[in-house]
Amino acid sequence: MASVTSTPAAGTERPSAVTARDLARATATRQRRGSRFKIWAGSVCTALVVLPVALAGLLPLPDANAQDLSERRLPPLSDGHLLGTDQLGRDLLSRILHGGQVSLSVGVLAVLVSGLIGIVAGSAAGFFGGWVDALVSRFLEAQLALPLLMMLLLVVALFGPSVTVITCVIAVAQWPEVARLTRSLVLVEREKPYVAAARVLGLRGWSVLTRHVVPNVVRPVSLVVLLLLAQAVLLESALSFLGAGPQRPFATWGRIISDGQAYLTTSWWLVTLPGLVIAVLVVGVNLLGDGLRDRTRRRKGAGA
Amino acid sequence: MTPSPHHAPPDRPSPREPLRRRTLLRLGALGGTGLALGPLSACAGPTGAPGPGTLTLGLNRSLVSLDNKLNQFDAAVTVQRAVREALTRIGPGMRVQRVLADRFEMTGPTAWSVRLRQGVRYSDGSPVTVEDVATALKMYGKVNGSFLLGLFPELPTVEKTGERTFTLHTERPVPVLDRLMANIHITPAAANRPEELQSGVGSGPYKVIEANSGAGEYTLARNPRYWGRPAHVDTVRVRFVPEESSRVIALRSGELDVVDTLTPDSAEQLTGLPGVTVQETSGVRISQLFYNFRKPDDHPLADARVRRALTYAIDGEALIRDVLTGSAEAAEGVVPLALEGAVRTGAYTYDPRKARAQLRQLGAEGLRIRVIWESGEFAADNSVMEAVADMFRDIGVRASLLQFEPGGDILKWRQGRGGDWDVIGNGFPGTTGQALTSLQGMYGGTPERERTRDTYMGYVVPDIQRRLEDAATETDAAARDRKLAAVQHAIWNTWPSLWAFAPKTMLARRDRVHDLGLLQLNSYDLSAVRLEG
Fold first, then answer.
1. pTM of the predicted structure, to 2 decimals
2. Which of A25, A259, B88, B131 has the least CB density, counted as fewest CB within 10 Å?
3. Could you tell me whether strands B398-404 and B206-212 are parallel, antiparallel, or unpaired per DSSP bridges?
């Protein structure tokens, strides 16, 4: 009996066949380690791109549109041009960073708008059900059935390529994913006792939804919105690449790559470096979102 | 002592279990990877390489039809004329050559005597007749929106004088009718329609055996009944490859044999590569940054002095040297000097200080300019436009760029129906080799034609139009040249372009392709091309 209650002394044999090594190799431990690594690596990759882009105006860089035709297509690490120059002698680093401001602004605005639309529509559908649910669900299914890029190109062709139009188009294109997730989370939440309690206390439907249900689902939804940021940046770049981006001389990542592809074999940096920046950002945002999601899940699991 | 089962190494396969699930999965994964990567390894080599008797051409624009009634861009001429022929053609040195006609002579100021060549026939064996020529002219005349009709001051009428002979009549003298008739393709009368023909036979050295006009892809085979010298190559495949970089890579890998209308940067990439030759010749097309002549009278751009002041902002030398990498010549006239009858009228000067001073003097400071163009209008168009916008900024003019993708609304905008603009990036081809035709096409606008918006960017100057018409009807060659020279100077003094240049015609071919005689018109005689190996 005493041997059961007494704490084993240091160095003594564990009273279990599960060793410390086994614990370290356990799935839960690996997942925790993995999510920590994902968050760390994702933050580094994202910061590596986002910080210079945000501070582009403060960095000692040449004007992104200042041309010097005598210095065209200089390779990286040339005098005064860390990433070289483009086909019109403009500093490539400055163009990538200033272009990133356009691409990232479009992406951030688009996901904010799409997140807002998605949360409002999805939570209303999940909470109220009935005809609201039918309407929202059919609408988002119809939109999901359309080929995304084709739809975007069509809208841009109709309304003209401007930053506002492209932002709205991407925002409208992405709301179904947020709405679907919000709806399913709200469906779970609305059956919980605290919702019934709130109703018993006399709160009206909208008040219960906005004051009690939405705050409980907004965290996982915001992670999906974060993941959509990478997709929005990619979509904006794809539109610019296809010639449906903001008009020249706005530099955007897609356009820098599109313009540079004619020089692929002679000036590799014109395509490779902006492509690398997009890849680092997308991987970074995805890792960060993934890591945060894993951590949220674990916490929820632990809480339960 | 027999070891207890739990002490046995857990991962070691038992001899009784020759194939475990994990092994099976590994094998499956390995096989799947092999299958997935197998096709990729094939990408390393030129899998789509044409056969020894097949010539593959990569066009940068889609060849919608092998008929030229509505669709005649430079490179299309090569393919269209391999299938359908005209009475004449513009050959080397911009000289007129007779094709279906063996006689084409001016017998009076408004009459031309023509005789069809003995034995000319279509690929189905039927003969080419005088009625076919008369019908072709009628059909071209009925087509709406035809670019070719703008080249003809009037379409001639046919008067049959014999089995193979006829006379072409015009109301007024058209001294370059033999050159203009190079654009009228002859098709059997019964099959001709006032539209782009999607099928039908021609009298050319090749016949069509497979056509996909939607994708712009055609397969041509040697016409065994060709009336002239048979073509050297058995089969010609025509492909539409819009992306310049894809065309360059396809040529390098041997998938394509010839790519035309190269940009200077692609030519730079291909020059010096083993197995590839880049050919170039001076072009007869003029590329312009043309002003909008539909501006109201009180608009600064309606004043020729403002238009001239703006030209000082453009550093043409830098654009030619650095952006177009020497693949063009700065215009020194209102049409390319390679055209017969073209004269030097002046040159564009770069002097931003003068531009700023003159604009200030004329009260046109802080001008806003909207520049429009269609992608692919000329080589390196995007770079040229962005460079021009930067040059405008240096003189305090704010330029906005509006780029149209092919198939967009630029035609509507060009006609002043889409929106307001100030400068357009545009090109005008010299299809007849004569300065007169290009001059009439661009500067011969009349108020009547402007009512239907069929003038060139709204350029309507009655005096110039009258003088051009006078030169066009002059039958004495020396007097015509004198009149033409004078009117070109008069046009230059209206400052119609912000800047202009004549791009060189460039083409790249694999070394197995021989005897490709690239003409200044950016086309070549497909039947003369030979393949080696």
1. 0.74
2. A25
3. unpaired
